[in-house]
Amino acid sequence: MTDFFGGFAASLISLFLNGFILLQVRRRFPGPEGTFLSRMYVWTLLLRHLGAIFLNLSAEGSQVARAFWGDSETYDYSGYFIARAWAGEGTFYLGSARAPSGYGFHYFVAAIYYLFGRNQLLVQFLNATIGSLAMLVVYAIARNLFDARSARWPALFMAFFPQMIFWSCGMYKDPAIMLCIALAMYAVLGLRARFTVSLLALYVASCFALITLRFYVFYVIAFATLGTFLFTQRRGILGGLFVQIVLVLALALGVFFGVRGETLEKQQALIDLEQVQVARVGQSLGGQSAYAIEADVSTAGGALTAVPAGLVYLLFAPFPWAATGTRQLLTVPETLVWYALMPALVRGIRVTLAQRFRASLPIIVFTLTLTLAYAVFQSNVGTAYRQRTQVTMFFFVFMGAGLEQRRQARELRRRGGAGPYSPTVARPA
């Protein structure tokens, strides 16, 4: 638990940081749109700050800590020992900080502790800011693909869905992963229209950060964006090919100079189907909510047979009628809302395929690929629910288009007219 002085310092730093972000929002989005986004950002941040304070006060050996603090304790200890080593006060902590995946967040926590002292609440508040920024980026993606009215829905969902709030309250790497994914996709949407060094740098930096946070998501991002870029760009073939070559070279150089060869070898080994099967067995043995434990995904055929059940659990679990324990019971209201939004998701996907297919192809390929990968990889309801957040934000984008399509259809019927939903793409956000 952070003491009073640490809490005051965390609040002060957060106030200045988020005040600057709010000023930028109002400057870049004038008028009613800026007012809406500013209010959404404040609400998003406030909910996460309240959750962070509650978790921090409950983090010392309580039932709440055992149920919800989770990985936060690991990052706290590893960050503390790394920061001490940097200051010459102790031995460098190894363990998970040297693992092939997730090591980046250990060093992020260590950097905060090195600069400001061991302040758990400050890391939690920074996570809240990262989660709030992800809401803004998802809004910008939806706005660029559709229009401002459609983009309001995913912003609302990112702000108020409990799973999005929870992972931004503790010391978890999930908000940073979501932000990096969203930034990479935002950069690709911008690069398809015009090549700028800033967008290229944003894409490469986001992808590089993903290597240190959850490496296999980087491979999915690279596959989805580089594999579809020529089909989605607006310039000529030669111009698009030039940009794609630049992207490939920039990513290759970033990986070559930024990641140890030993780490890359371990990461590539973990993608092997036999290792995936080992990980699935470990999940089923380590948790109380295992499913499809009989599946064997060590071969391509076995992986394919595991997909249907995996998709059902990944997209719809935890099932309200089978919820057990406090954590699953708390997800029941959110899950019911999620189910109610499925028709909007279907409508939104139809609208996207019909009217925004080329523009949204990188997002479609990424969402589909990572969803199928998690359907094969996951075998525990808790971890499936957690990993779903990485694709949920793009489901929110499609839901927004579906909800706006329904609203416009109702408006047309009320006026006695008829016609399909036709989003007007706003200026780039």
Give a description of the structure.
With 429 residues, the chain is an all-alpha fold. The chain has one domain. It has helices at residues 4-28, 31-57, 63-69, 71-86, 103-116, 120-145, 148-160, 162-166, 174-191, 197-213, 215-226, 229-232, 237-258, 261-270, 273-286, 300-316, 325-330, 332-340, 342-355, 357-377, 381-387, 389-415. Helix 10 (197-213) packs antiparallel against helix 11 (215-226). The longest helix is centred in the first third of the chain and has 27 residues, at 31-57. The mean pLDDT is 85.
Index terms:
globular; mainly alpha; 429 residues
SSE inventory with pairings:
Blueprint: H1 4-28, H2 31-57, H3 63-69, H4 71-86, H5 103-116, H6 120-145, H7 148-160, H8 162-166, H9 174-191, H10 197-213, H11 215-226, H12 229-232, H13 237-258, H14 261-270, H15 273-286, H16 300-316, H17 325-330, H18 332-340, H19 342-355, H20 357-377, H21 381-387, H22 389-415
Q: What would a concise description of this structure say?
A:
With about 425 residues, this protein is mainly alpha-helical.
* N-to-C SSE string, H for helix and E for strand: HHHHHHHHHHHHHHHHHHHHHH
What is the CA–CA distance across the termini?
39 Å
Number of strands: 0
Query: So how many helices?
Result: 22
Radius of gyration: 22 Å
Q: Structural class given helices, strands, pairing?
A: mainly alpha
Kindly state the percentage of residues in helix.
over 70%
Global mean pLDDT: 85
List low-pLDDT spans: none
Q: What about the largest sheet? A: none
Strand fraction band?
Answer: under 5%
Number of domains: 1
Shape: globular
